[in-house]
Amino acid sequence: MQRPSALLASDGRARIWLGANYWSRTGGPLMWRTYDGEVVAEELRTLRDHGLTMTRSFFYWPDFHPEPDRVDEEMCARYADFLDRHQALGMTTVPTFLVGHMSGENWDPAWRGGRDLYTDVWLVARQAWFAGEMVRRFKGHPAVAGWLVSNEMPIYGSPPGEPEAPREAVAAWAQLMVNAVRAAGGTQPVSLGDGAWGLENSGFDNGFRLTDTAALCDFLGPHVYRMEDDAVRQHHAAAWVCELTGTFGRPVILEEFGLTTDFASDEGAARYYRQALHNSLLAGATGWVAWNNADYDALREQPPYRHHAFEMHFGITDAEGRPKAPLRELRAFAEVLRRVDFARCRRPDSDAALVISSYLDTVYPFTRPEDRQYVQETGRQAWIAARLADAPPALVRESDGPLPEGARLYLVPSAKQLLSPTWYRLEELARAGATVYVSYSPGAHEEQRGPWYAHLNRLFGVRHLLEYGLVDPIEDDEVTWTFSRALGSLPTGARLNFRAAGTRHSRVFLPVEPVDAEVLATDAHGRPALLRRAVGAGSVVLSTYPIEHMAAVTPRVNPEATSTLYRALAVEAGVARPVTVDDDRVAVDRLVRQDGRTFVWLVSQARERLSVKPTLPEGARLTALDGGDAVESVELEPYGVAVLELREPE
């Protein structure tokens, strides 16, 4: 099962963007009014000397487009100098047209007059005209690496408290803007700058759809700033969005990510950057643009920093231009990219597939938004658990059509809703030899609360004992499973413990009695907790507890026992896992280079230093990237990352 990791291409060459979103510390969004080329050169040199190769830059719309039919030529001259200074340092930049929105404030050109940004024909024409004018001026400059239409247009076009824009209007606006770039001669890669926040990633409908964007644009650019209650989920927040975004067949550039050091210590900032960079790489991202290059202490009287004080300190350099912990992590990451020759690497295929219910990205009649967000949350938790089981799965979207063959293990976590044909398709896949795992959930709210399964009893070989309109609450604060039969790496007598959590609707189990299924594990009350039904050459495994949902809503829970279960399922299903570590706090993944060389990542989610001994294929060995003796054990700093080479037997 393919795990996409498409590379951005320009002029027939793969391009790896590693850089920073850029406002000079001399002015922030107003930098073009007080432009200081020498300071810009100093700032860019610091980024370059730490391994960064590009920036994302911004045409502050009120300054560059002061009248409907006029572009400010002085501002353009300053931007031309900005490009020249990039070129002198061997760097590139990606200009952004409609700004618009930035760091907690929206700014309009004085002439907008409250017109709708998507549906007012005159205003859309002015936007397209402005984009075209900027492209005509700068398209030939070698420092221009690409184009972005906006900065977080969903916030600018539909500010908080206003209705969300309709999909049709947004899609038409996007098409006109991209067409304007192309008509003006812009041949570089282009995208929208919208943050990839649409329905397919978040379950929230803001009018932007990744399906539409992918059809128009050359790459997709997530913006990720999550507030979480679990360190492992936080470390995978950007990676999960990149993995979801990669299902649309375009290169994924992590266009904005980062943190304000008002919200994190130096050590915490370093850990976050390290984890976000490496985990998103392993999730298919092939470009990274940090937010942002500098701190703005000198701009404390200037909006947006006057009213959003924390926005002053998102910089990877401080207000004097000195490197901060995030920039040092970016430098280390750049060195890894260089040493593995990342532009020639790809993610290997996976024998495991995580099924993403179409109820995430499709608004079905008489369903609720909570159903969509539920799929996103439980899917993310299951994906993390599989990664920590060293079985990183490919994502399979139900909305793309019948589930494809090719995986040995299909994971359907804490499912309330799939389409009726999909339930039958899962049985077909099992009959053909796959292991299909489903965990029960009736959803998290009261409306039509229960399993929307097409043929529950037959599929799982059970007889359910539900009573209409009622649920069976989980009585215990901790759910304990005891295995009466071996499953993969879990022997008879093994125990797994899960923290119970959820709403009064979702903290429930499915009462069943086996008919054609065997009970693998029981709960503390002797009830079936995990059952397996043999189907043709494969099997269907049912968890009667919504273990992924319970973990997804529990603070500070990861790593947790679902990883141990997934590891056992992977072994049972015969999932290829060439390098593993028997510790749920360490995730193992690989990249394969065009010449056949394989590079192995070990990413720790432990607060303490770890020493782990990887399990390898017979005769294989791990070495440092520069060769040398075989590495028998790997030392990992707290939340550390190790990158090694896997050498096959000679």
Question: What CATH architecture label of the largest domain applies?
Answer: Alpha-Beta Barrel
CATH H-level superfamily title of the largest domain: Glycosidases
CATH class of the largest domain: Alpha Beta
Q: Which class do the helix and strand fractions yield?
A: alpha/beta
Classify the beta-strand content into a percent band.
15-25%
Quote the average pLDDT: 97
Radius of gyration: 26 Å
Number of helix segments? 17
Write down the domain tally: 3
* C-alpha end-to-end distance: 28 Å
Structure, explained:
The protein has 650 residues and is α/β, with parallel strands linked by helices. The protein has 3 domains: 14-340, Glycosidases (TIM Barrel, Alpha-Beta Barrel); 352-573, Rossmann fold (3-Layer(aba) Sandwich), CATH 3.40.50; 586-647, Golgi alpha-mannosidase II (Immunoglobulin-like). Helices cover 29% and strands 22% of the residues. It is built from 17 helices and 32 strands. The strands form 8 sheets. Strands 15-14-16-17-26-25-24-20-21 form a 9-stranded mixed sheet, sandwiched between helices. Strand 11, helix 11 (266-282) and strand 12 (287-290) form a beta-alpha-beta unit. The longest helix has 20 residues, at 369-388. It is globular and about 80 Å long. The relative contact order is 0.09.
Which descriptors would you attach to this protein?
nine-stranded mixed sheet, 650 residues, 22% strand, 29% helix, eight-stranded parallel sheet, alpha/beta, TIM Barrel, Rossmann fold, Immunoglobulin-like, 3 domains
